[in-house]
Protein backbone atom coordinates (compact mmCIF):
# COMPACT_ATOMS: atom_id res chain seq x y z
CA UNK A 1 0.00 0.00 0.00
CA UNK A 2 1.37 3.40 -0.96
CA UNK A 3 2.08 6.06 1.65
CA UNK A 4 -0.57 8.25 0.02
CA UNK A 5 -3.18 5.51 0.25
CA UNK A 6 -2.31 4.74 3.88
CA UNK A 7 -2.48 8.46 4.67
CA UNK A 8 -5.96 8.74 3.15
CA UNK A 9 -7.09 5.63 5.01
CA UNK A 10 -5.83 7.02 8.31
CA UNK A 11 -7.54 10.35 7.62
CA UNK A 12 -10.88 8.63 7.03
CA UNK A 13 -10.39 6.49 10.10
CA UNK A 14 -9.67 9.54 12.25
CA UNK A 15 -12.64 11.43 10.82
CA UNK A 16 -14.91 8.48 11.51
CA UNK A 17 -13.68 8.20 15.09
CA UNK A 18 -14.78 11.76 15.70
CA UNK A 19 -18.21 11.07 14.28
CA UNK A 20 -18.76 7.54 15.53
CA UNK A 21 -22.01 8.26 17.29
CA UNK A 22 -23.41 9.98 14.21
CA UNK A 23 -22.40 7.11 11.95
CA UNK A 24 -23.97 4.62 14.32
CA UNK A 25 -27.31 6.37 13.95
CA UNK A 26 -27.29 6.88 10.20
CA UNK A 27 -30.73 6.17 8.79
CA UNK A 28 -30.54 4.22 5.55
CA UNK A 29 -33.34 1.65 5.21
CA UNK A 30 -32.54 -1.72 3.71
CA UNK A 31 -33.86 -2.83 0.36
CA UNK A 32 -37.34 -4.34 0.10
CA UNK A 33 -37.57 -7.78 1.65
CA UNK A 34 -39.26 -9.29 -1.39
CA UNK A 35 -35.99 -9.65 -3.32
CA UNK A 36 -35.79 -13.03 -5.05
CA UNK A 37 -33.56 -15.94 -4.13
CA UNK A 38 -29.86 -15.69 -4.97
CA UNK A 39 -28.73 -16.68 -8.42
CA UNK A 40 -26.33 -19.59 -8.79
CA UNK A 41 -22.73 -18.54 -8.26
CA UNK A 42 -21.81 -20.13 -11.60
CA UNK A 43 -23.65 -17.40 -13.52
CA UNK A 44 -21.51 -14.82 -15.34
CA UNK A 45 -20.87 -11.73 -13.22
CA UNK A 46 -22.63 -9.47 -15.71
CA UNK A 47 -25.86 -11.49 -15.28
CA UNK A 48 -25.87 -11.48 -11.48
CA UNK A 49 -27.94 -8.82 -9.78
CA UNK A 50 -28.02 -7.30 -6.33
CA UNK A 51 -30.75 -5.13 -4.88
CA UNK A 52 -29.73 -2.42 -7.40
CA UNK A 53 -26.35 -3.15 -9.02
CA UNK A 54 -25.71 -5.76 -11.67
CA UNK A 55 -22.62 -7.93 -11.42
CA UNK A 56 -20.23 -5.67 -13.34
CA UNK A 57 -21.39 -2.62 -11.41
CA UNK A 58 -20.96 -4.50 -8.14
CA UNK A 59 -17.37 -5.38 -9.01
CA UNK A 60 -16.57 -1.77 -9.91
CA UNK A 61 -18.12 -0.29 -6.77
CA UNK A 62 -16.52 -2.88 -4.48
CA UNK A 63 -13.10 -2.25 -6.04
CA UNK A 64 -13.49 1.53 -5.92
CA UNK A 65 -14.60 1.49 -2.26
CA UNK A 66 -11.61 -0.69 -1.39
CA UNK A 67 -9.24 1.88 -2.88
CA UNK A 68 -10.98 4.59 -0.86
CA UNK A 69 -10.69 2.54 2.34
CA UNK A 70 -8.24 -0.31 1.70
CA UNK A 71 -7.75 -3.20 4.03
CA UNK A 72 -4.40 -4.18 5.47
CA UNK A 73 -3.19 -6.99 7.75
CA UNK A 74 -5.17 -6.63 10.95
CA UNK A 75 -7.03 -3.60 9.55
CA UNK A 76 -10.40 -4.22 7.87
CA UNK A 77 -11.19 -2.36 4.68
CA UNK A 78 -14.27 -1.69 2.60
CA UNK A 79 -14.55 -5.28 1.36
CA UNK A 80 -14.26 -6.65 4.90
CA UNK A 81 -17.05 -4.33 6.07
CA UNK A 82 -19.22 -5.20 3.02
CA UNK A 83 -19.53 -1.57 1.98
CA UNK A 84 -20.86 -2.74 -1.39
CA UNK A 85 -23.89 -4.26 0.33
CA UNK A 86 -24.57 -1.02 2.17
CA UNK A 87 -24.47 1.08 -1.01
CA UNK A 88 -26.46 -1.48 -3.00
CA UNK A 89 -29.27 -1.61 -0.44
CA UNK A 90 -29.26 2.18 0.02
CA UNK A 91 -29.68 2.78 -3.71
CA UNK A 92 -32.63 0.40 -3.74
CA UNK A 93 -34.17 2.31 -0.83
CA UNK A 94 -33.43 5.66 0.79
CA UNK A 95 -30.90 6.75 -1.86
CA UNK A 96 -33.03 5.75 -4.85
CA UNK A 97 -32.85 9.33 -6.13
CA UNK A 98 -29.16 8.66 -6.85
CA UNK A 99 -29.72 5.66 -9.10
CA UNK A 100 -29.21 7.57 -12.35
CA UNK A 101 -26.23 9.36 -10.83
CA UNK A 102 -24.57 6.00 -10.15
CA UNK A 103 -25.56 4.46 -13.48
CA UNK A 104 -24.08 7.35 -15.45
CA UNK A 105 -21.05 7.61 -13.18
CA UNK A 106 -20.22 3.93 -13.49
CA UNK A 107 -20.62 4.07 -17.27
CA UNK A 108 -18.23 7.02 -17.41
CA UNK A 109 -15.82 5.23 -15.08
CA UNK A 110 -15.80 2.24 -17.40
CA UNK A 111 -15.25 4.47 -20.45
CA UNK A 112 -12.39 6.30 -18.74
CA UNK A 113 -10.64 3.10 -17.67
CA UNK A 114 -11.00 1.48 -21.08
CA UNK A 115 -9.64 4.60 -22.78
CA UNK A 116 -6.68 4.84 -20.41
CA UNK A 117 -5.92 1.17 -19.70
CA UNK A 118 -8.09 -0.88 -22.11
CA UNK A 119 -9.73 -2.61 -19.14
CA UNK A 120 -12.59 -1.91 -16.72
CA UNK A 121 -11.79 -0.53 -13.28
CA UNK A 122 -12.20 -3.83 -11.42
CA UNK A 123 -9.60 -5.46 -13.71
CA UNK A 124 -6.90 -2.87 -13.12
CA UNK A 125 -4.07 -3.47 -10.69
CA UNK A 126 -4.11 -1.48 -7.40
CA UNK A 127 -1.63 1.12 -8.67
CA UNK A 128 -3.72 1.80 -11.77
CA UNK A 129 -6.89 1.93 -9.70
CA UNK A 130 -5.28 4.51 -7.42
CA UNK A 131 -4.34 6.55 -10.49
CA UNK A 132 -7.95 6.49 -11.65
CA UNK A 133 -9.28 7.46 -8.21
CA UNK A 134 -6.77 10.32 -8.03
CA UNK A 135 -7.77 11.52 -11.52
CA UNK A 136 -11.44 11.61 -10.54
CA UNK A 137 -10.64 13.40 -7.29
CA UNK A 138 -8.71 16.02 -9.26
CA UNK A 139 -11.45 16.30 -11.91
CA UNK A 140 -9.18 14.96 -14.65
CA UNK A 141 -11.39 12.42 -16.45
CA UNK A 142 -12.73 13.84 -19.75
CA UNK A 143 -15.05 10.87 -20.29
CA UNK A 144 -17.24 12.18 -17.46
CA UNK A 145 -20.03 14.65 -18.28
CA UNK A 146 -22.73 14.15 -15.68
CA UNK A 147 -21.92 13.49 -12.94
CA UNK A 148 -18.59 15.28 -12.93
CA UNK A 149 -15.62 13.10 -11.97
CA UNK A 150 -15.15 15.03 -8.72
CA UNK A 151 -18.84 14.66 -7.77
CA UNK A 152 -18.73 10.93 -8.45
CA UNK A 153 -15.59 10.54 -6.36
CA UNK A 154 -17.01 12.56 -3.46
CA UNK A 155 -20.27 10.62 -3.45
CA UNK A 156 -18.59 7.24 -3.49
CA UNK A 157 -16.19 8.34 -0.77
CA UNK A 158 -19.07 9.52 1.42
CA UNK A 159 -21.00 6.30 0.92
CA UNK A 160 -17.88 4.23 1.59
CA UNK A 161 -17.40 5.97 4.95
CA UNK A 162 -21.07 5.42 5.77
CA UNK A 163 -20.80 1.75 4.85
CA UNK A 164 -17.72 1.36 7.03
CA UNK A 165 -19.10 3.01 10.16
CA UNK A 166 -22.91 3.10 10.10
CA UNK A 167 -24.89 0.67 12.22
CA UNK A 168 -24.69 -2.88 10.76
CA UNK A 169 -28.48 -2.75 10.58
CA UNK A 170 -28.08 -0.94 7.26
CA UNK A 171 -26.03 -3.64 5.56
CA UNK A 172 -22.43 -2.48 6.01
CA UNK A 173 -19.98 -2.46 8.93
CA UNK A 174 -20.00 -6.26 8.75
CA UNK A 175 -19.07 -7.93 12.05
CA UNK A 176 -18.66 -4.42 13.47
CA UNK A 177 -15.46 -4.07 11.42
CA UNK A 178 -15.56 -0.29 11.34
CA UNK A 179 -16.51 0.13 14.99
CA UNK A 180 -13.77 -2.22 16.11
CA UNK A 181 -11.28 -0.34 13.97
CA UNK A 182 -11.92 2.97 15.77
CA UNK A 183 -12.71 1.50 19.19
CA UNK A 184 -16.32 2.67 19.10
CA UNK A 185 -18.48 0.68 21.57
CA UNK A 186 -21.60 0.91 19.46
CA UNK A 187 -25.02 0.32 20.92
CA UNK A 188 -25.02 -0.57 24.62
CA UNK A 189 -27.99 -0.95 26.98
CA UNK A 190 -26.05 0.86 29.69
CA UNK A 191 -22.58 1.90 30.86
CA UNK A 192 -21.48 1.17 34.42
CA UNK A 193 -20.03 3.95 36.54
CA UNK A 194 -16.52 2.40 36.44
CA UNK A 195 -16.77 2.19 32.62
CA UNK A 196 -17.77 5.84 32.39
CA UNK A 197 -14.93 6.93 34.65
CA UNK A 198 -12.29 4.66 33.15
CA UNK A 199 -9.65 5.96 30.76
CA UNK A 200 -8.89 2.45 29.52
CA UNK A 201 -10.08 1.09 26.19
CA UNK A 202 -13.70 -0.05 26.31
CA UNK A 203 -13.71 -3.83 25.91
CA UNK A 204 -17.34 -4.90 25.94
CA UNK A 205 -18.61 -5.89 22.49
CA UNK A 206 -21.43 -3.92 20.82
CA UNK A 207 -24.92 -5.33 21.20
CA UNK A 208 -25.44 -8.11 18.70
CA UNK A 209 -29.17 -7.53 18.38
CA UNK A 210 -28.68 -4.93 15.67
CA UNK A 211 -26.26 -7.17 13.82
CA UNK A 212 -28.79 -10.00 13.86
CA UNK A 213 -31.31 -7.72 12.16
CA UNK A 214 -28.89 -6.57 9.49
CA UNK A 215 -30.11 -7.23 5.97
CA UNK A 216 -27.93 -9.57 3.97
CA UNK A 217 -27.46 -9.09 0.29
CA UNK A 218 -30.10 -10.72 -1.86
CA UNK A 219 -30.21 -11.02 -5.60
CA UNK A 220 -33.10 -10.71 -7.96
CA UNK A 221 -33.68 -12.34 -11.29
Report on the architecture of this protein.
- With 221 residues, this protein is an all-alpha fold.
- It has one domain (3-33, 48-213).
- The protein contains 10 helices and no strands.
- The protein has helices spanning 3-18, 20-24, 55-68, 83-91, 99-117, 126-137, 149-165, 177-182, 193-197, 209-213.
- α3 packs across α6 (126-137).
- The N and C termini lie far apart (38 Å).
- Mean pLDDT is 79; it is low at 18-48 and 209-221.
List keywords for this structure.
10 helices; mainly alpha; 221 residues; 49% helix
**Major sheet: size, sense and barrel closure?**
none
**Uncertain spans, ≥5 residues at pLDDT below 50?**
18-48, 209-221
Task: Name the structural class.
Answer: mainly alpha
Cα shape = elongated
**Beta-sheet strand percentage?**
under 5%
How much helix is in the residues?
Answer: 40-55%
Distance between the termini: 38 Å
Number of helices: 10
Rg over alpha carbons: 18 Å
Amino acid sequence: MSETRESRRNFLKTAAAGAGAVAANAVVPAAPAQAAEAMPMSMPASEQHGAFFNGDESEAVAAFAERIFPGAPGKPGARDADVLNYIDLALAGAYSDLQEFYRHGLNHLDAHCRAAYSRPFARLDPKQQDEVVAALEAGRAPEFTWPTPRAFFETLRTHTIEGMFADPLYGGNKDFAGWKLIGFPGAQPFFTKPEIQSRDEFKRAPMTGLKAQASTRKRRT
